[in-house]
Write a structure and sequence with these properties.
Layout (H helix, E strand, L loop, with lengths): L10 H4 L27 H27 L7 H34 L3
């Protein structure tokens, strides 16, 4: 069908280079880069995660109340989406809690 036809694309010119590329004049973002964490203690990180979990757990109830009051901005689909997000957040939180407890148990089993 296309005998002898080869499209002429300059593919190298069409590639978008990013900071992660290690060739050319662009320095690699993965080398010699140390970032300071935004929060330094474990307690503040965990309390922030719990607050976000609490907010996501309360969102379906608030949306359901608004939908029952007849608000035009809230639909039943929004309530169902919020419930799904809350369910996923609970699953992630329970999995993370289990992993943290397992890591703590392994650390406590280390003999010095």
């Amino acid at each position: 069908m296309f005998n002898g036809f080869y499209p002429r694309y300059d593919l190298e010119a069409r590639i978008q280079h990013t900071k992660l590329d290690s060739w050319g004049d662009i320095p690699s973002a993965r080398m010699n880069r140390i970032e300071e964490p935004a929060t330094t203690d474990f307690q503040s990180v965990m309390s922030g995660l719990v607050e976000n979990l609490n907010t996501s757990m309360n969102a379906p109830d608030n949306l359901l109340k608004d939908a029952m009051m007849g608000s035009e901005n809230v639909d039943v689909h929004d309530v169902m989406i919020a419930m799904s997000k809350a369910e996923i957040a609970i699953n992630v939180a329970t999995t993370a809690t289990g992993k943290i407890i397992q890591a703590y148990d392994k650390i406590m089993q280390i003999q010095i």
